[in-house]
Specification:
By secondary structure, the chain is an alpha/beta fold. It has 46 helices and 27 strands.
């Protein structure tokens, strides 16, 4: 039977263009009985290693290639002509060709990128060895030359490729409906082949695996081009033949060109590539005095040992020698030396660092001053990090101050060479929820369709649409054909690679030029001078033998570092963080109160609750809580706390486990404990026990049974009975899956302790550093300021004469104050501010608005910056904010004029007359307005996210609380009320958001603001229809129950209404959920025929009115019936689109009457008439 090999295939790594999953692609070829397949993604090699492994799995020959973009002239040129490069199909014939592909791809991305990653003929010629070239698709140079009928260029093109690639050049022929000039191109290629004895090869431009994938691929193309399926102008493939066809299909279509079909097999035979997965491409450290790496590592380790420990404890020396032996036998001394070198630089520059993960268990790394935690003190198991039984690359995860990470990277580039270091790529795939929403959009269906379906899909990591189809509510929605269509297509796109980005921490350092083993591209991190990014992801990097390191920027380390700087500035003494007492009373007192806002790892609401209950008394307690506070082990937290305080007896499954489990009160918390139990009971070495732990985590049935048999056998040999052995194995089996890495937990506990220590002992320095860490995050600053206000610290409002670029510590008669950081204001840049503050520091405070205008340069300020400074209150000493805002244009004109004067020759004239003659300044008259507090608050919220102007509503809310203690107006009150009983709240309405539960039920989250902070109000589906009564009002009176989940309070809605401070007697009013509807018919007798003409008003706010609410007090108005008649007549006479409601109030209840027939047009005329009848104080607008 005739066979065929597909040599032109786009996988999902041709991002949002190809749809073929790599394994399905190879499996399809296997099912077709085809011997090989090529991967030719657009301009990249993202999937090469993964493709290679799947091909080997299915016993299919892998041909690694790519569809390259070739510059029109020169890949270094960037002009209009180069916006549409040629396409060219390249295949690697052998390992040399594979390496040359990587070098070409690297050049195209690092040097030739212009809209697309481009190579050119110089690069092709330089790296031609081991490469087979197919002339390409209709976008190739040869095809475009044929279409333009440029005979000379046609001849030059195929001539050049023939000369350079010799018998490795083939003319590529394909046939797809709708491709312009496809027949012309193919006819000419046949002629060129015949006349020049050049071989032909048949390809199919495959973009998906099966023919029925065509429709889903159409949607993928819509995602790429941001169009929808109904767009007549969208880019699309006109036929459904871009799939991996069988050999029979290809021979049937191309039976008249058997040579072109047979040449696919010939090329396949020529391509024989082997990627060596056994290599360890470790960096090589250049040791002094011709010492070997191991000799130098041993020397440094013992030198560090003497520094770290004052005594030669035999146990410590034995552990150090054991670790060095394992490192030597594993051939990792160079890697440890490279890590030492990096941290030697870091420590010399006083960059605060930490090491996460199992590496903190290494005594060698502690002696090298890479880690800062003594592993012996915390009983950490080295084999969890490195052991001879589990031959894997060591993994040292390094944390640095986030604003110093680039400094460390720069050092590594300079130290090891730019060709030897790169960051690691990561790929984002289309998740279940995203797929559903994307498909809804490109199918041109209402957004609500996707939102409803996506809302039911659980948010748990790894959840797929198939899991949602097991939920009854989701299954019920499948009866709707649109829903079914969305879900069917979404399942086809789910999991498809969508984008590439740079891993937050992953870095590789190699001894040799990286492009020998991995293609590179420009980093997507956006960091200046960032090292390039690999095109292979983490798993592929490990497969080819490159060693991954983690360089993570950790904000909390920056906060600690900046805190220390502020302490040293104030005390004028050096502060050594490593000399901090680990038993500081104030620190543990702070933790025991649950005062953990800003404390690393401990600030979530749930964690605050547990830390408060635990009242930790050691770093070990903190480490255990960090390990326990995760799904799975969380169920043991209460038992852990009760056991600590003797409220529950500590139980050990066997007395032999007491030493192992005593520090965690009989509960298995750490992976290290699993290893030690396997050693103590099953006779495992710690290295073997680590293999057992990994096997338990993977839950492979056959492996688990074999390990269990071995564990029982070992236990029996050690003298334990079979029943106990089984019980212990069954005990550790579930814990192995979610027990935590102790070294990691202790490392994070240490950082948590440091942050708590500084907050407890150096409060103002710590909060100042904390604020500056969020300088560009208004929401975080707002939360931090709210927390500061709960303390005895004072934070000052912005002021151009005492605030600085960043938050700072200021001295005053009151003591130390926190000065506001002006660069945190919206639209204000730190660069501009630096110039203004520099001028203030040099020449003194700005004495007036005119003085400010005279002394600053127009390049330092613009309208947005000036407006933000005024709105924040920074210029309050120069006049009223409203007046200043009205004067902005004049202020800017003044600044510009004075700047031009200074920069012109005229300025020297004034110098001739001496210092007493000043540059003339036109006086800017600021209107003496009186901006209301509400307006100031609004402006402050706009530019800062918080307000310093005292909230008049909060003052009134607190007065209400004094009148009636049952009214809740603050978060603090919640701590002392019965959460099982409904409570009454008076709160400001800030915002709301509608959502859909995973069961498909609509609900609403309303953000309420109390006097000391926000709280979420949950409104469930059965109550949503009621909230319109009060939702758009500034203040509401809400009844509901307090719900505490994982230590975080929210309010569950029961009833609510608009609240007015002018009616304080209303506090005790009851609520009614009934909303009577008054029909038009009921008011027909009161209607008059004549209509009053109204004049439309143009006020923007009034035009945004969503509802008019009129309040009538039945007790005060004896003529209530006449008022209702008059109101109805006026409302009906002023027909429009704005709905109207009337709230009738008495001492016992409020009833809202919806008037669906009486929609009005808001106008000045209407306001005047309502004022005459009911008084404007009883008329409210909802906006």
């Amino acid at each position: 039977m005739n066979s065929f090999v597909h040599l032109h295939n786009h996988s999902e790594y041709s991002l949002l263009d190809g749809m073929s999953n790599l394994e399905k692609m190879v499996a399809r070829v296997k099912a077709n009985n085809q011997p090989a397949i090529a991967i030719t993604d657009h301009g990249n090699m993202y999937g090469a290693v993964e493709f290679y492994k799947y091909s080997k799995k299915y016993d299919i020959k892998p041909i690694i290639g790519l569809e390259a973009y070739c510059a029109i002239e020169d890949s270094l040129k960037k002009n209009n002509e180069e916006k549409s490069p040629y396409h060219l199909t390249l295949l690697s014939e052998n390992e040399t060709g594979y390496q040359n592909l990587m070098k070409m791809v690297t050049h195209s991305n690092l040097n030739g990128f212009y809209y697309k990653p481009r190579i050119d003929k110089k690069i092709l010629e330089k790296y031609n060895e081991g490469i087979i070239v197919l002339s390409g698709c209709p976008s190739s140079e040869l095809s475009r030359s044929i279409v333009s009928n440029d005979q000379e260029k046609i001849k030059n093109t195929y001539g050049w490729f023939s000369d350079v690639f010799k018998d490795r050049f083939y003319l590529e022929i394909m046939d797809h409906i709708g491709v312009p000039n496809q027949k012309l191109i193919n006819q000419q290629l046949l002629e060129i082949s015949k006349n020049n004895n050049l071989p032909l090869v048949i390809t199919n431009d495959n973009h998906y695996v099966e023919k029925h994938d065509h429709a889903a691929h159409e949607l993928l193309m819509c995602l790429q081009t941001n169009s929808n399926i109904n767009d007549p102008n969208r880019f699309k493939f006109d036929d459904d033949n871009y799939y991996i066809k069988s050999s029979e299909e290809m021979w049937e279509e191309w039976k008249e060109l058997p040579s072109g079909l047979n040449n696919t097999l010939e090329i396949s035979e020529r391509c024989n590539i082997k990627i060596d997965f056994s290599k360890a491409l470790l960096p090589k450290y250049d040791c002094p005095d011709n010492k070997s790496s191991m000799e130098y590592l041993r020397e440094l380790s013992y030198k560090g040992f003497s520094k770290r420990f004052n005594e030669n404890d035999p146990e410590l020396i034995e552990r150090l020698d054991y670790e060095l032996e394992v490192i030597e036998k594993s051939n990792f001394p160079d890697y440890f030396l490279v890590c030492w070198d990096i941290f030697n630089f870091v420590n010399s520059k006083n960059i605060l660092s930490a090491v996460r993960g199992s590496a903190a268990a290494s005594l060698v790394l502690y002696c090298l001053e890479v880690t800062k935690i003594n592993p012996m003190e915390h009983n950490l198991v080295f084999e969890r990090f490195l052991n001879l039984e589990r031959r894997e690359m060591p993994d040292i995860d390094m944390d640095f101050e986030d604003d110093k990470r680039n400094e460390v990277m720069k050092y590594c580039v300079e130290r090891y060479g730019k060709d030897h270091i790169a960051q690691i790529i990561t790929f984002g795939t289309m998740g279940a929820k995203a797929a559903v929403r994307d498909v809804t959009r490109v199918l041109d269906l209402p957004i609500s369709v996707g939102d409803k379906l996506a809302g039911i899909i659980p948010t748990k990591v790894g959840t797929k649409i198939k899991h949602a189809l097991e939920i009854d509510e989701f299954k019920d929605l499948m009866n709707d054909p649109d829903n079914r269509k969305v879900v069917d297509f979404a399942q086809k796109l789910e999991g498809t690679v969508r984008h590439a980005s740079t891993h937050a921490a992953g870095v590789i350092i190699s001894q040799d030029d990286l492009t020998n083993d991995v293609p590179l591209q420009i980093s997507t991190s956006g960091e200046e001078n960032a090292p390039p990014t690999t095109q292979y992801a983490m798993a592929a990097i490990a497969d080819v033998g490159l060693l991954k390191m983690d360089f993570l920027g950790l904000t909390n380390l920056s906060i600690i570092s900046k805190t220390i700087e502020l302490i040293e500035k104030r005390t004028e003494k050096e502060f050594n963080i490593y000399e901090i007492s680990k038993n500081d009373e104030q620190t543990f007192e702070l933790l025991s109160k649950g005062d953990t806002f800003g404390v690393f790892q401990l600030e979530s609401a749930g964690m605050r609750k547990y830390i408060k209950d635990l009242k930790p008394s050691s770093i070990s307690d903190i480490a255990a809580m960090i390990a326990l506070y995760r799904p799975g082990p969380m169920e043991h937290i209460d038992r852990f706390i009760r056991s600590k305080y003797g409220k529950e007896k500590i139980k050990y499954p066997h007395d032999a486990l007491q030493d192992i489990l005593s520090e965690t009160y009989g509960i298995i918390v750490y992976q290290d404990q699993v290893l030690k139990i396997a050693q103590a009971f099953g006779g495992y070495t710690l290295g073997e026990a680590d293999i057992l732990r990994k096997a338990m985590g993977k839950k492979i049935k056959e492996v688990m049974q074999a390990e269990k048999d071995r564990f029982i056998s070992g236990s029996l040999e050690k003298g334990f009975d079979e029943k106990t052995s089984n019980e212990v194995f069954e005990l550790i089996e579930p814990f192995a899956g979610y027990a935590f890495n102790k070294a990691h937990s202790v490392s994070y506990a240490m950082i948590a302790y440091w942050t708590a220590y500084f907050k407890a002992n150096y409060k103002i320095e710590y909060f100042t550093a904390l604020l500056n860490s969020s300088i560009n995050n208004t929401e975080k600053i707002s939360v931090s300021v709210t927390e500061i206000r709960k303390t005895d610290l004072e934070i000052l409002k912005p002021n151009i004469n005492n605030s600085n670029v960043f938050f700072s510590i200021l001295s005053s008669d009151k003591g130390k104050l926190v000065g506001y950081g002006l660069s945190s204001l919206k639209n204000v840049s730190s660069v501009s501010l630096s110039k203004i503050i520099e001028e203030r520091e040099k020449s003194g405070p700005f004495e007036s608005l005119g003085d400010f205008c005279k002394r600053i340069d127009s390049s330092w300020i613009n309208k947005k910056i000036l407006e933000s400074l005024i709105k924040s209150g920074s210029f309050d000493e120069f006049g009223d904010r409203g007046g200043l805002l009205d004067s902005v244009e004049r202020i800017l004109i003044q600044i510009n004029s004075l700047t031009r004067l200074r920069n012109s020759n005229q300025s020297t004239m004034f110098d001739l007359f001496g210092e007493e003659v000043e540059t003339p300044v036109n006086v800017i008259e600021v209107a003496e307005t009186a901006t209301q507090d509400n307006e100031k608050m609004h402006w402050e919220q706009e530019v800062m996210g918080i307000s310093f102007t005292e909230n008049p509503n909060h003052k009134k809310m607190l007065r209400l609380k004094q009148m009636n203690e049952e009214i809740i107006v603050s978060l603090q009150q919640i701590e002392s009320v019965d959460i099982n009983k409904p409570q009454t709240f008076i709160a400001e309405i800030k915002s709301y958001e509608k959502r859909v539960s995973r069961k498909g039920a609509e609900f609403m989250i309303v953000k309420l603001e109390l006097t000391d902070g926000p709280i979420d109000l949950m409104v469930w589906q059965n109550k949503i229809s009621e909230v319109d009564i009060w939702l758009h009002s500034p203040i509401a009176k809400i009844k509901g129950k307090i719900n505490n989940r994982n230590g975080e309070n929210s309010l569950w809605y029961d009833s609510g209404e608009i609240f007015s401070f002018d009616e304080q007697s209303d506090i005790s009013n009851t609520f009614t959920n009934k909303t009577p509807i008054i029909t038009k018919e009921e008011y027909k007798p009161n209607m008059k025929n004549e209509k009053t003409p109204i004049e439309e008003i143009t006020d923007e706010k009034i035009n945004q009115v969503k509802e008019v609410i009129i309040t009538v007090n039945s007790e005060e108005h004896s003529s209530n019936k006449h008022i209702m008649d008059d109101l109805t007549r006026i409302l009906l006479d002023n027909e429009g689109n704005v709905p109207v409601s009337i709230v009738v109030k008495s001492n016992s209840e409020k009833v809202k009457l919806n008037l669906p027939f009486a929609n009005v047009n808001t106008s000045k005329s209407l306001e005047e008439k309502l004022d005459n009848i009911i008084g404007l104080q009883n008329v409210f607008y909802k906006q």
